[in-house]
TrEMBL record:
It comes from Streptomyces kebangsaanensis. Pathway: Cell wall biogenesis; peptidoglycan biosynthesis. Residues 249-384 form the L,D-TPase catalytic domain. The keyword Signal applies. This is Ig-like domain-containing protein.
Amino acid sequence: MTNSKRRKSLTAASALLGGVLVLTACSGSSDAAGSGGDTSQARADKAAAQESSEAQIKITPADGSDNASINNSAAVTVAKGTLTKVAMTTVDGKAVEGQISADKKSWKPSGQLERATTYKVSASATDAKGRAAHENASFTTVAPEHSFIGTFTPDNGTTVGVGMPVSINFNKAITDKAAVQKGITVTSSSGQEVACHWFNTQRMDCRPEQYWQENSTVTLKLDLDGVEGAQGVYGVQQKTVTFNIGRNQVSYVDAKTKQMKVTRNGKVVKTIPISAGSPENKTYEGQMVISEKFKETRMNGATVGFTDDDGKGEYDIKDVPHAMRLSTSGTFIHGNYWGQGVFGNVNTSHGCVGLQDKKGANDPNTPGAWFYNNSMVGDVVVVQNTGDRTIAPDNGLNGWNMSWAQWKAGSEA
């Protein structure tokens, strides 16, 4: 790839942001490396890809779809392998019954899906050599034509990190933002002032000025039944959601020193060597919130514009361990079993933050496993000294990169 070839940002929000999840892949914000740079790290990436499973899992409807059919929509198929496990749930964790076919090549749910519901699908398969492949996706089913709903995160009853905003994605464009915002309240047992910010006509996030106080409880009330959000389009939701704030963990990634300091209540509890984005593919700077966690997942360079001369991904690793999403455009902090001697020494990635790990994600003693096991959705990862720009506030759950004045200026209250 030449330096004129830009990385393509993924256009969908995360599954926790309205059910949108694209194929996971590392993504920095700078130009990809030149096509002629056959570095040792590039060779290691290719070697890892060659050792990856040949099984090709396909989840339908397409990742990030909305208005999906409630009848004949959901399906999982595999080529060059057999399915070993498929799990489908609603975003609040309710399991959907389904069955793998006798030949283990496909899966479908047993009954009709619910309207206006976001579903998550997780699938695993093995190839002829027993190598595992994993795929994760989510989609939202069709809503009534003349109504709108807001898909929100976090879920009711969950415990999240101090950086987790309330994020609401509407399935239709809202033209009367003031009326809709009036029907939504977010409060905290800590007494912190909470303000909401509209990023566009379909997304509104709410947060306090500083991170949530640990061990507090946050309540989201949706009183939208009958509210006209756009001409002839009315709300249908009457719902109260509460979630808990856990311990105060903020981690600081320094691309210059190639170290990450994990803090609890401001005190360093662990220092972990890392490898951030290479000089050609720098990692975004700024405050980033973990929005999803995957013990193993696939990372394909083609999904974010890292392709070779044949149009294939520069890397396609189907079993990346301990991956945690930091942006919707493909920035992750994840385990890395193929890098040799890079952690704490050199920045080599395509934009992600890598931690030493082992293939299979089953060794709890690796740095990647430790950080995964000691992190939760909503924890903050602050990335510094990469030399790149600050991540956009709406690229993931990253509104903390706006000042309080800027944040409140986006409110319609």
